[in-house]
Write a structure and sequence with these properties.
There is one protein chain. The protein is of the alpha+beta class. It has a single domain, classed as Peroxisomal Thiolase, Chain A, domain 1, CATH 3.40.47. Helix 1 packs across helix 2 and helix 3 packs across helix 12. It is globular, with a radius of gyration of 20 Å.
Length: 389
């Protein structure tokens, strides 16, 4: 049963960093995760033209919370960004859905009346803290041996179970075209990076996007999780570094602070799904969100599905059967092209959705992500037009 809707919640600003390859030669590798998120938070409040003292909480997703990504990165980042010490921060981990869950928590705090202005954010430096390095494989084996009632499998193995043959050509082509057309200019900001030798450079565009793909080479990529499988490095999301942040406000607070209401949060859901076939959670999550909003898939103008693997998007298309196939899905490319900085991707996709709705003058956008061990998060937002202010 759905809970009472509560107060309207608005997105008033959304920004992301360009996404870098999550490797030692990636453009952001020499930055500290705290510094990367701090720059993102500073950019967010600067663009919104709001004083940080009005922010009541900063919620941040981090999927590998250890080493440089431990010790509550959002709190440290907001302090480094110059926010008042009175602004709290908290770090959460719902695996790939972490910063989308941060957005849900932010919206829920405002809808309930507990707060009026909240930041949702996320950061992941996969070149700094390796994915999965926060968990002991011995510990998982021990858990299974102790009678755990489900198999614990890698997402890639799950991708094989739901896979259909596909390539990443469309994702790279759309992302490359979006970069060329300047579609990402308004949602990203340049970052000055200092390398190990003290030399400065400016990083301003998603690093993993390829303008051209060699079909022959892609077809020859070895499979990763199954000898006769279909999942390769070419149709899976890239290991990445990046950060994003979204500023939420209640209607009265937005009006009082002179903030522009850009999108209204229509509904937000999280579901559990089969922990083995974990990647198909995007299907029930989408259906639940649409039902809660009283909408159909044909009402949605922009659909952002996290491309953890190509098979996720293809399984979703088969189940939801949108009239135009994938025409509205990841219109500017997805994580296969620009990358998947785990803890940040939810807010990255929300940022892309807000800006794309404005660019095409659409009304509704849907953002959905699969999550490890069988979960999925989904958000529907509605663009605010001047007549609604």
């Amino acid at each position: 049963m759905a809970a009472t809707a509560g107060r309207d919640v608005y997105i008033v600003e959304a920004v992301r960093t360009p996404i870098a390859r999550g490797k030692a030669n990636g453009a952001l590798h020499n930055m500290h995760p705290v510094s990367l998120l701090a720059q993102t938070l500073a950019e967010l409040v600067s663009r919104a033209n709001v004083s940080p003292e009005h922010i009541e909480d900063v919620i941040g997703g981090v999927v590998t919370p250890k080493g440089k990504q431990g010790a509550n990165v959002p709190r440290l980042a907001l302090l480094k960004a110059g926010f008042p010490v009175s602004v709290p921060g908290v770090q959460i981990n719902r695996m790939c859905g972490s910063s989308q869950q941060a957005a849900h928590f932010a919206a829920q705090a405002i809808a309930s009346g507990d707060m009026d202005v909240v930041v949702a954010s996320g950061v992941e430096m996969m070149s700094v803290e390796k994915m999965g390095s926060d968990v002991s494989m011995d510990g998982l084996s021990e858990l299974v041996a102790d009678g755990f009632p489900h198999q614990l499998v890698h997402q890639g193995q799950s991708a094989e179970l739901v896979a259909e043959k596909s390539t990443s050509l469309m994702s790279h082509a759309r992302a490359s075209a979006a970069i060329a057309a300047g579609h990402f200019n308004a949602q990203t900001f340049p970052i000055t990076v200092t390398d190990a030798d003290g030399r400065e450079s400016v990083f301003s565009r998603d690093e993993g996007v390829r303008a051209s793909i060699d079909r022959t080479k892609m077809a020859q990529l070895r499979t990763i999780f199954k000898a006769d499988g279909v999942v390769t490095a070419g149709n899976a999301s890239q290991v990445s570094d990046g950060a994003a942040a979204v500023l939420f406000a209640s209607g009265p607070a937005a009006d009082a602070l002179g903030l522009r209401k850009r999108a209204r949060v229509v509904t937000r859901v999280v579901v559990g799904s089969d922990p083995v076939l974990m990647l198909d959670g995007v299907i029930p999550a989408t259906r639940k969100a649409l039902k809660a909003a009283g909408l159909t898939i044909e009402d949605i103008d922009v659909i952002e599905i996290n491309e953890a693997f190509a098979s996720v998007v293809l399984a979703w298309r088969k189940a939801l059967a949108p009239r135009d196939g994938l025409a509205r899905v990841n219109p500017n490319g997805g994580s296969i092209a620009h990358g998947h900085p785990l803890g940040a991707t939810g807010c990255v996709l929300l940022t892309k959705a807000v800006h794309e709705l404005e660019r095409i003058a659409g009304r509704y956008a849907l953002v959905v992500m699969c999550i490890g061990h069988g979960q999925a998060t989904c958000t529907i937002i509605e663009r605010v037009t001047s007549s609604k202010l």
